Amino acid sequence: MNKRLYALVPVLLMAGCATFEPEPVSLPLTPPDQWAHKDTSGATVDADWWQAFDDGHLNQLINRAIAANPGLAATAESVIQADLQLRNAGTALLPSVSASASSGRQASKAPGQGTVTGGSTSAGVAVDYELDLWGRLSAVEGAALANFQATRFDYDTARITLVAAVATSWFEWLELRQRVEVANRNLELGERTLSLVEVRYRNGVASRAELARQQTAVLGLRNAVPPLEYQARQRLAALRVLTGEVPFAGTPPVADIAAVSIPKINPETPSDLVTRRPDLAATEARLTAASADIMQARAALLPAVSLSAAARLSADGFLSLTDPVRSVNGLVGLSQALFDGGQRRNNVAISQSRQIALLESYRGSLLAAFQEVGDALDREALFQEQEERLQDILARAEESLRLTEVRYREGADELLTLLDSQRSVFDVRQQLSQARLSRLLAAVDLYKALGGGWEREESRLVTAQAQE
């Protein structure tokens, strides 16, 4: 009997005749040959791209966000769940082994007879295995593997998005702080002019209307400061939430947006972009999972073949297998649905439709990716030129204001001329601050659009380790 059981083991452990082999995902469109901006003098994007801004505060914030952001931690748990689902899918390709044992004792007594006692004990092992003749089970595992890869890529995308959000919020806070400083400087300038007008008014040179006009201007400048301070506090609170900290707690850091370096970035070629963005890789993985789903649906149209074997020992006696009776049996099962109202064929059509929808979504994602890079490159060039022009304009406006103050003090110019000069300086200072922020945000968006230095090989290594 044992020899028969051993002879069945290789049969039960034989591999299925069909396996799922994913086909490479072809690009649904042809990438352009080059970007509209052909300047490639900058540095290529690496995984720690935020360090190119040379801002120690930003580096600390991003490190805290990666370690403590709740949303990123939840996404990491999704990767763990997908890994466990992959492991569950792989177990369907292996035999299932179960064991059972029982022992009992009974007593019976017939009328006029003595009590008769007895017992029985049995133990057995059963092995069940479904032959994967049509590749259905391997397709299930292939879909689970592709979904795990997509979830891993989703985590990489979430990580890049989080880092970009932290950098954006930090730069916006720096710009708001600078706008507060600019507003305070404008207020100081307005108050200095008000002092000058008051002196002229007391000496009978300036009219009451001029004094009231300047007093109104100072009140307006003073009223502009609190809203900017409020916006800065709100932005800092949002930044603390991104880093997993309690909002509206702690003291604001001391930093200056002018001290932040603006890196020069090399976008490389559009064809490289396809392999450098994890969101595109996630869509490719889901396309692979969709092809596995189609294979599953098609295999469900064919008969299922299963093998089972069992070995059993039984003996009379309670908790005893002395001189047991041995039995071994094997069974080949074949099942085929004859009529299901077209449900399984509809499942094939549904899987094919989902694959087409994913392919169109992939094409849309590629178009959006090319647009994001091109737009970021455009904005980077635009605001660099704008900031350079505004610096020159500010220097001229401040010189004009200085000369106008002198002429007003000497009575050669009216107050309205001085106010116009002040307003020009105020406006240019605000525009220069916003242009600086726009350049920083364009750089962040470009880093993000280029994939944030993401490497597909790193995710492949993680996937291979999980598969093992």
Automatic annotation (TrEMBL):
A cellular component annotation (GO) from this entry: cell outer membrane
Highest taxon of source: Bacteria
Alphabetical keyword list: Cell outer membrane, Lipoprotein, Membrane, Palmitate, Signal, Transmembrane, Transmembrane beta strand
Name of one Pfam family that matches: OEP
GO molecular function list: efflux transmembrane transporter activity
Primary localisation category: membrane
Claim: Metal-binding is one of the keywords in the record: no
Record carries keyword Transmembrane: yes
Membrane topology: Lipid-anchor
Localization in the cell: Cell outer membrane
InterPro entries listed in its UniProt record: MdtP/NodT-like (IPR010131), OMP_efflux (IPR003423)
Residues making up the signal peptide according to the UniProt record: 1-20
Entry's family note: Belongs to the outer membrane factor (OMF) (TC 1.B.17) family.
Protein's name according to its UniProt entry: Outer membrane protein
Species the sequence originates in: Marinobacter excellens HL-55
